[in-house]
Amino acid sequence: MAKKITDRSKDYSQWYLDVVREAELAEHSPVRGCMVVRPTGYALWENMKKELDRMFKETGHENAYFPLFIPKSFLSKEAQHVEGFAKECAVVTHSRLKSVEGGVEVDPESKLDEELIVRPTSETIIWDSYRNWIQSYRDLPILINQWANVVRWEMRTRLFLRTMEFLWQEGHTAHATREEAVEETERMLEVYRTFAEEYMAMPVITGVKSESERFAGAEETYCIEALMQDGKALQAGTSHFLGQNFAKAFDVKFQDQDGEHKYVWATSWGVSTRLIGGLIMTHSDDNGLVIPPRLAPTQIVVVPIYRSDEQKSAVLEYAEPIIESIREKGISIKLDDRDNFKPGWKFAEHEAKGIPLRIAIGPRDVENGNLELARRDTLEKSIVPSTGIAEYVDELLETIQKELFETAKDRMESRTRVANSYDEFREEIEKGGFIYAHWDGTPETEEKIKEETKATIRCIPLNSEPDPGECIVTGKRSERRVLFARAY
RNA sequence: CGGGGAGUAGCGCAGUCCGGUAGCGCAUUCGCUUUGGGAGCGAAGGGUCGCAGGUUCAAAUCCUGUCUCCCCGACCA
Fold it and tell me: What SS3 class is residue A389?
C-alpha cells in the first residue's frame, strides 16, 4: 500500500497534518479552528496531565475550578491585560434560541444585560474571588491550579499548536511578598523544564521574554522554548510574575504582620495541548508519531504471527505469560490479536501511532524460546530470549526515553549558533535554529529585526553569564546575547 | 481579515472547461486461499457531489451567497 505520510523533507506542514491524522490524535471539527481530540490523543494528554498534576501537588498546589464565563467588566479592570486579549475574545450576548420555520434563531428578547466573555485566561475571574479569600498574611500564600479549556479567537489555526479552543492548566498564586512570588514563578518554570525534559524528552531553553513578547499584565514572563525538527522554535510553557497588577485592579489587600494593608503579589503559569504539537515535532519521523515511553498510553504492543489456528493458539499460549510478566512491572502492554489485519499492516499502524516498543512472536520464536523486539525510535529489530524479558524491556524503555532526549538535545545544540553581525544573523536565521546575538534591549530594534528577518527574540536565557558586546543592528552596548529564532 | 488552492463513499482522488442523473483505488461485509513489513481472487454494501439559493426540460458541472480545510501574509500566546 502507498505511504500515507508525506516525507518531512518534502512538506513539513503536510507531514505534521499526516502524522496527526494517521496517529489518530485529532481531527478537524465543523467549527473553524476547533479540533476533536480523539481517544489516542486524549490518552496522551491524560498522561501529560497526570505527571504535571502530580508535580503541581508536590509543590504545594491544589486544584480548583472557576467559571468559563467572565463578566465583560472584569476584563476591563487591568488595562494591559484587556489590551492583550481584547482582539481575541468570544462574547456571549444572548441566552436562548427560539424555534422558527426551518430551525432556530437567537431570541432577541434574551439579550444579556452584561455580556459574558468566554475565558481566554482566568486571571480576572480568579482575582475577583481572591479578594474575598484574602484578608490577612495568614491567608497567604494561595496556591491554586485549574485544568480547563479556554478560547482565543485566532485568525490562523493549526491542530494542537494554535486552536481557538484548547485545553490547558493555569496556575494562579497569591503571595505576601515580591520575593516569594518571584520564587514561585521560577519554581514553576523549573517544573515545566523538568516535565519537558524528563517526560517529553524535549530539551528546552529557559529564559525571560522581552517586553514585547511578555504576557499582557505581567511584569516578567518566564518561558521554556523548544526547537522543532524544522528549525522553528516553539514556546512550550510560560510562568508569569504579575507583580501587584491584578491585586491593584481587583483591590486585593492583606493586613501584614506589621499591621499595614498591602497589595498581594501574584503569579500565573500554564501549559496547554500545544505541548502535544511540540512532542510530535520533536521526535516523530516519516513513519509517523514517536512517543517517549514515559508518556506513551501503550508502551509495548505484541503482534502474534501465525498461519494456522494451531499456530495461533501455540503463539498466544507462549505470549500470555510473557505479557503478564511485563504487565507486572507496571508497563502498559497490549496484545494485538485482531484477525483481520496482517502482521505487516499492524507493524505499520503501530509505528504510525508511535508505540515505543513492539514485540512480534511467531512459531519460530515459540520453538526457540525467543521473541522479536522492534524499537520505534530507531526502527532497530533484535531477536532476544524470552527469559528475563520483563526486566529487559523495562530497562530498554528507559534507554529509549534517555536516547530520545539525547538525540533531541544534540540536534538542538547543533542548530544553536552565534551571530556577530547583522549580515551573519540574516544568513544564519535562514537556515533555521536558535541564534544567539547581541541586542540593545529596545523594542524598536526587536521590531526591526522581526520585520526584516521574521525572527523574534525567543527569550533572554536565564543563568547566562554577562557577555558584553554590541547590538548587531544599532551597535549600542548589550550586556548579553539573547536567543533568536523564527517561531510557531 | 487579505491573496492563492481545495471540499465528490470512512480515507485518497477522477469527473466540472463542453450540463444528460456519479466513478476509481484503498477501507468495510461475505466466501475461499493467505499471515515473520501495509496479502490474492470472487461477490456485495455504501454518496441528497460542503451547505443554501438561482438559471435550465435537466446541475457534481453554469451563476450568487455561505461554511470548513490547506499554503502565504497581517494579527497573536
Answer: helix
